[in-house]
Predict the structure.
Amino acid sequence: MFETSRGTLPPRAWSRSDAGRVDLSGTWAFRYGDSPEAPADFVEALPEGWGEIKVPGHWQLQGHGAPIYTNQRYPIPVDVPRVPDENPTGDYAREFDVPASWDGGRIVLRFEGVDSFARVWVNGSEIGSTSASRLPNEFDVTDHVRRGERNLVAVRVAQWSANSYIEDQDMWWLSGLFREVTLLHRPDGSIGDHVITADFDAAAGLGTLSATADVPARLVVPELGVDVAAGESVELAVEPWSAEEPRLYRGTLASESETIELAIGFRRVEVADGVLVVNGRPIQFRGVNRHEFHPETGRALDEQTMLDDVLLMKRHNLNAVRTSHYPPHPRFLELCDEYGLWVIDECDFETHGFGGQGFSSGPGNPVDDERWQPALVERMRRMVIRDRNRPSILMWSLGNECGPGRNIAPMANAGRELDTTRLIHYERDFTSEHVDIHANMYLDFHDLEALGRREEEALDDAALDAHRRAQPFILSEYAHAMGNGPGGLTEYQELFDRYPRLAGGFIWEWIDQAILTTDAEGREFYGYGGDFGEEIHDGHFVADGLLFPDRTPSPGLIEAKKVFEPLRIEAASDRIRLESARDAVTTRDLAARWSLETEGEVVASGTLDLPPVPAREVVEIAMPDLPETAGETWFTVRAVLAADAPWAEAGHEVATGQWQLTEPATREPARVTVAEPAVGPGSFDGHGRLESLGPLLVDAPHLDVWRAPIDNDHCFWGFEPPVMDAWLREGLDRMHHRTDEVTWRGDSLEVVTRTAAANSRLALVSRWLWTSDGGGLDLALTVTPEGEWTTPLPRLGIRLGLPGVFSDAEWFGRGPGESYVDSHRAALIGRYRSSIDGLQTPYVMPQDNGQRSETRWVELTSTDGASLRVSGAEPFGFTARRWTTEQLAAATHPSDLVAGDRVWLTLDAYQYGLGSASCGAAVHPKYRHLPEETTMRIRFDVRG
Ligand code: IPT
């Protein structure tokens, strides 16, 4: 019951072979049922009257049953290893021919991935059953197939099985034959399992290459002049494989009847002096956790999608991927070899839901239940054996979130027995007793720094403590990319860079796992937990990736690209400092251009001679000769690929540097005489509220401290109580405004307001000083807190309603994308344009978005020629939307947001950071603002 595979062949290495192969992907006959106990009446002959289904695929995404999203919880009663009677079941059948050319040998039916359990019949005979959804299951069907006749393969897949208990990853429950099914010819003398070992001795520059196989075979690598028998080892000068330069040597392993293609990468991973070292040099992971996901096909990915993932990672300066939380499709690993990504390959093992049953550890959890041991060790062995010829894999991971327990050691040992060339990782072995690297997840800056210094809290067991303290540390997950965020990537990166023990980490996670669906009106939207009628679910916690579901990069990914840039370009007094953040190779592949911009207009530009900066070194070069400028002037360098790379074309931007050369001129607004009800173009009501700006009727600006809460404000799994709770307690979402004074002076209107929530003594007192130079309208707004504030504000600024005719924005400040105080490095200062609709970022769960920070001025324009320019004496943040903050906060899908007849403009002195407390670290203390006296000086100029 704990071990569900029967009749399977021993595992063997995945490979590309010239032996016969028939892909059984495509359309299968399909019947959906509710019990795997139903009579297996479909295994003798191709059933008639059935529907059809696409293989690979999930039935829930092809009109049968429905997807279920839970993070940790089991959607079935927890009663190991039994499952409910109601058990969605997919019966699959198709005919196939055995090619006449397949003489002798064996015929194997291979399932690359079946979720979660299948029984298999060929021509009416039951040949076995499967286990481990994300690992292959092979069956010898030689004695069951009929050559020269039509054959029938019938498969019954159950959604729930014993496997489900140990496959409780944070993802959709999706079932079926979701990876390829193939029929393989295994001629006599063909190669079964085989191991290619390609070690690299960096000091000597020598590689050691050998192959082992279960039959006599020859290893041939023409480029290296290698032609040796399996079992022999050769030593020779080679170039190493790294994520930065994925040097592969193509070769073959050939027996008398089969030739296997090899992609050999020489490399050595080790822990040296407590540091993670590859090929003799320290490395740092700038990684991401990747689930296999497509919004229409779930975990059934086509090759193009896998390639898209790899290209997107490379183009965004990521260098590593943890295959959370199961072995990916083998093609993905092959792509990592080819394009260069370090990989942590993770076993298909998670039992997180037992935590909720009171068994985070102990025998109530499969990790500590001996009855599961054979199944778990077998999974580990199957992963290592399938994948150990892939150079990109540096570590094996035992699984995720299963807690500590007695089955961990045997799994780790099984890995070590099969492969001594890689390290063992497990995120839940906090004492590091069984692993080679100390790992944890979502630590805040303080705890991470302590680890960097090797000053973490000691374990009781001194020997174990010494063992762990000598290990490098990685964050297996950090910077939870749910919704708007993550903020704080820069602060994490600074710690990774400062402490050699820290070998970087893996952002959670790669893509929003939201499923394309339609609402009652037929509008498409990306659905999350609860959108598919689930009985229990975990809402939009599944939408926490760096990519939107359609693989559009989110602002978080754009920021990661900047923070992870391989070349850091900075000012060093009057020179340019170039620091390589690469671990292995120089920057000789990069070229650079510079530009000088005043008020966002290019005044000079040119190319920069980039020297090849060696890995982790610094080189300074001279600034180009620059013309004199007047006005706010910025110097920008953009480093690009000098020539085409396999993953991007020449000209692809890799790194940027930008600094300010000249400050803007300051201006004290002149004041003309004013008289009620007007101050220059502004007209006010009796309460001193702005009613119109020139011809524009406005909704009077009022003090605004609320933002549509972002996921990180909620802190689903944060370290501190959610900041949201404090905000709601203080009533910051329901502030009332009272006018206390309206004073018309000869050259100004001064209004004093008090903003406070019901049942609160805390208030913000605002002094609005309106003046004009005869052209525009100037506002000096001074906000003073009243009472003992202990809660940082979501934001401090104003909100103004404008006629809906405005359609476009042009601004000088950070852009072109959105930016927030702790996620703004990718947004360079410049002059940008966008439609108002284009300013919005469509987070799967609507929340504050689209802020453009450090804006000097923004001009809104309409198609009928109206324009409003807002400029700040100090930079400000702005958003412009066709809905209010409250409407944005109330929406549960972007399709809920319907444009109204106003454009709402928010202007901020500051805003609370993003952080990543939806799961993990709260906003860094430097990005929280307790109210203190703050002045915003803003000018409005109207035209048209
Ligand atoms: C961590 C899980 O490992 C991961 O699968 C995912 O659920 C992530 O959290 C949150 O999105 S576990 C966390 C609750 C500490």
